[in-house]
Target: Ig-like domain-containing protein
Amino acid sequence: MELVLVSLCLLTFTGKAFGDKPNQTPITIKEDESVILPCFFSTTLTDKRIDWKKDGEDVFLYENGRVNPSSQNEQFRGRVSHFPDKVKSGNASITIKQAKVSDSGSYTCVYLNEDGREEERQQIRLTVDGFKLLQNSSQIAFA
Ligand SMILES: *[C@@H]1O[C@H](CO)[C@@H](O)[C@H](O)[C@H]1NC(C)=O
Ligand SMILES: *[C@@H]1O[C@H](CO)[C@@H](O)[C@H](O)[C@H]1NC(C)=O
Model:
């Protein structure tokens, strides 16, 4: 249980320490909820590579017109989807379902051209509140 407290503090800490400049409004949700992480580029993306990462970990990869799950981090397996019919109009948003506290972090959405060169990126911060966990931890802390 002490471990839970420590990891919670750590999360709060890293959340503040990462001083990157998100160009989107941060999103906060509760554990187990679904969330759409918005990403939009003013170009058609069907022939591009779309690469979503969270603090360097692979979240979602779209290339050659389809989703490529081969390098996806285990943490996100089966929980991330995109909007296939929106890619043409530049919408690279993804949905994460059954969000976990460990999904919290800084997400980047990048699109790369045919040569694999990065063209543009967007960044968004997600915070997943472990509501139950917090309540229980404080009970323990002040018992
Ligand atoms: C992108 O698609 C999602 C899902 O349909 C939608 O919620 C969002 O508003 C779209 N974004 C833009 C900029 O069109
Ligand atoms: C928190 O405590 C409640 C009861 O007080 C319990 O039902 C729940 O499962 C606990 N949640 C966690 C994550 O330990």
DSSP finds two helices and nine strands in the chain.
